[in-house]
Specification:
Blueprint lengths: L1 H18 L8 H9 L3 H6 L5 E6 L4 H14 L4 E3 L7 H11 L10 E5 L2 H11 L3 E4 L7 H4 L2 H13 L6 E5 L15 E7 L21 E7 L2 E5 L12 E8 L5 E7 L3 E6 L4 H16 L4 H10 L6 E7 L2 E7 L3 H10 L6 E6 L30 E4 L3 H10 L5 E3 L3 H11 L5 E6 L1 H13 L13
Parallel strand pairs: 1-3, 1-4, 2-3, 4-5, 5-6, 6-9, 13-17, 14-15, 14-17, 15-16
Antiparallel strand pairs: 7-8, 9-10, 10-11, 12-13
Helix pairs in contact: 1-2, 2-5, 4-9, 4-10, 6-8, 9-10
Length: 457
């Protein structure tokens, strides 16, 4: 009875939130349902014949989970998926309830769940997943995690409690993730880049094994690359799935080949950057490991048009904008890197400090804003969000003084679009809650669909 009451309460609260235009009800109703029945997720997931896949890590979770759900649907399966990106316990509960009928019954094969690192272990315990994919570990939300080693420990805790026979896919170019050890009867496999032309230089990264400096033969971005410790011999594991023949084409996208010992195919995607190649590669690795037909994987990945807020393209009266989520320095730097060699553009930056973002914004000083100093960027830079003044100070130190501050994101967007010449493009780089605010504002004007209208089926 508690299960039914929890499901009904969740659905009624969600309906009320939508009728009152207070958002999509993607998380809060689930939190209320969990108070009524703490085992509601166990009861939902136990109905799935194919079981659950969980995607976690610092960056790329939403894109990877959306891509993977698309592959499974292309293969003919019905999939539960928290497509709005609400990845705490409440959001996951809402995703299951929205896929069920009023009696809480699911007619689905799989669930693909994006999980915040902080709730990953709890979700493993409740959902008992068939497979897990971990994208990477970067510095993020320092007020919650403190450092990358705490995030790693949270993921390790979840992996240690996986059911026997679970499949785990890890980024083999991440030295932190490669320290994780498989438990009894757990299959670990790795994905990586294989491209000798992509190398960014030096980084100060300590060996996770012996704490001496880690040497990189190739550095792709942040701490990802080909590494080895001269002191203890720690290095990349053997790679099971890889991307090669990589050609980056700025904001237009990328061309590359995905390969394993059995399969290979070429992709031409419209989502830019090495970080997106890692996302596609991870999906290829897990889908292959789950024995999805290779043609199905190729077709689905080629047809993917992007998840909300991740290089989302917007057009208003002939003027074009691209919205990119960047919730930490690693994400910001990768988006900025795609702007190199771009023709004329304007920039709108938005940063909030809500709990979902992390209130410690010291990472702003790790962003390479100095890279913006080029003839391609047309000034002023528009700054918005509750921490717009912090952005202004950071840009001042990057010798970018021509800025326009408007804390209200909707007004800032309107000003930036008004300033935009049709030959230019507006690049919007914002963190999580700022993205949701702008999404909500644009959807009310009918310019985009509401973010909670995901790909449920």
């Amino acid at each position: 009875m508690a299960f039914l009451l929890a499901n009904w309460a969740l659905r009624l609260i969600t309906l009320a939130i939508k009728l009152l235009r207070r958002g999509g009800g993607t998380s809060f109703p689930g939190s209320m349902a969990l108070k009524i029945d703490k085992n509601i997720l166990v009861k939902f997931s136990s109905q799935l014949p194919r079981r659950v896949i969980i995607v976690t890590g610092t960056n790329g979770k939403t894109s990877v989970a959306t891509l993977l759900a698309g592959v499974l649907r292309e293969a003919g399966f019905k999939v539960v998926h928290n497509s709005s990106g609400a990845n705490l316990l409440g959001g996951v509960t809402v995703a299951f309830s929205q896929s069920a009928n009023i009696f809480g019954r699911l007619n689905h094969d799989w669930a693909v769940i994006e999980a915040d690192e902080g709730v990953f272990a709890s979700l493993v315990a409740q959902l008992k997943p068939k497979a897990v994919l971990v994208t990477n570990i970067f510095a993020d939300q320092l007020d919650r995690y403190g450092d990358t080693e705490k995030a790693l420990a949270l993921i390790a805790q979840g992996l240690a409690n996986l059911p026997a026979g679970s499949q785990v896919i890890l980024n083999g170019d991440d030295p932190l993730l490669t320290t994780l050890s498989p438990g009894p009867e757990i299959d670990f496999k790795y994905f990586c880049l294989k491209d000798s032309q992509k190398s960014l230089g030096e980084i100060h990264q300590f060996c996770p094994s012996c704490r001496n400096k880690l040497s990189y033969h190739q550095l792709y971005y942040e701490n990802l690359g080909k590494f080895e410790c001269a002191n203890c011999g720690f290095k990349n594991p053997a790679c099971n799935y890889w991307a090669e023949d990589i050609e980056l084409q700025g904001l237009k996208g990328s061309e590359f080949t995905l390969a394993s010992s059995r399969d290979r195919f070429d992709l031409n995607i419209n989502t830019p950057g090495l970080y997106n190649i890692y996302n596609y590669l991870g999906v290829f690795a897990l889908a292959s490991d789950l024995q999805m037909p290779i043609k199905t994987i190729e077709t689905s990945l080629n047809d993917f048009q992007g998840s909300f807020g991740r290089m989302q393209r917007i057009e208003i009266a002939g003027k074009k904008a691209i919205m990119a989520l960047a919730k930490n320095a690693a994400g910001f730097n990768q988006v900025l890197n795609t702007l190199k060699n771009k023709e004329e553009y304007r920039l709108l930056l938005g940063v909030n400090d809500q709990l979902s973002d992390g209130i410690d914004l010291s990472w702003l000083w790790d962003i390479n804003f100095e890279d913006l100093l080029s003839d391609s960027l047309n000034l002023p830079v528009h700054l918005s969000g509750s921490r717009a003044l912090d952005l202004k100070l950071r840009l001042k130190y990057a010798q970018i003084d021509q800025v326009l501050v408007e804390e209200d994101l909707s007004h800032a967007f309107a000003l930036a679009i008004a300033d935009l010449d049709p030959k230019e493009e507006l690049i919007i780089i914002i963190n999580y809650s700022a993205m949701l605010q702008l999404q909500n504002s644009l959807s009310k004007k009918g310019l985009i669909k509401p973010f909670w209208q995901g790909d449920q089926s």
